[in-house]
Amino acid sequence: MTSKLVLRNKCLIFGNATVGKTALVQTFHSDGTQYPKTYGMTIHADVCVKPVNIPDTNVTIEMFIFDLAGHDVFQEYLSKYCKSASSFILVYDTTNADSFKALPKWIQFIRQIKDLRHGCRGVLVATKTDQSFRRAVPTQQGEEFAKQHNLVFFECSAATNTDVEAPFYYVANAFHELFEENLRVISKATAEMH
């Protein structure tokens, strides 16, 4: 019997207020059983932990998910939650063009976080796809932004629990791949020393 390897990944969730960050996190964390019916503003950060098993391995990634406040009032406090982060998810609302226009501001903030600069993989998530009749930001626009900023693009709806897990599983798998790559580098360097 092989032992289980548990890796811990601190994942930051960024985006404007009301884009659906909390709904996204709560729906993922509860495996789709909990969806917040009313809006409650996140003050500073909400944290949850969710294990993600990496297929065909003995590895589990413990996702420490930091749902960060998106309101401007809390911006000055965000950096204290960003220490030792290894991944991020940047979120915008497909029904709110202003949330999409704010993405460059979030990218600038993310680039200032030194822990997120080295090998970190981030994703861009478009939420509220169930509200297609209110859509203000076309899919192509999101894909282009993601490509420009070297992010992987996902669309989802927490309200209908559609594709909510995909960005989190991607982040967990990318974190595992980075761990394996670093392990190979260390093993090779150790072998060369002997």
Structure description:
This protein has a six-stranded mixed β-sheet, sandwiched between helices. The protein is 34% helix and 24% strand. The longest helix has 29 residues, at 165-193. It contains six helices and six strands; from the N terminus they run βαββαβααβαβα. It is α/β, with parallel strands linked by helices. α5 links the parallel β5 and β6 (152-155).
Round the mean pLDDT to the nearest integer and report it: 86
Shape label? globular
Low-confidence stretches: none
Biggest β-sheet, characterized?
6 strands, mixed
Approximately what portion of the residues adopt beta-strand conformation?
15-25%
Distance between the termini: 31 Å
Structural class: alpha/beta
Number of strands: 6
Helix content: 25-40%
Question: Number of helix segments?
Answer: 6
Q: Would you list the SSEs in sequence order as H and E?
A: EHEEHEHHEHEH
Radius of gyration over alpha carbons?
A: 17 Å
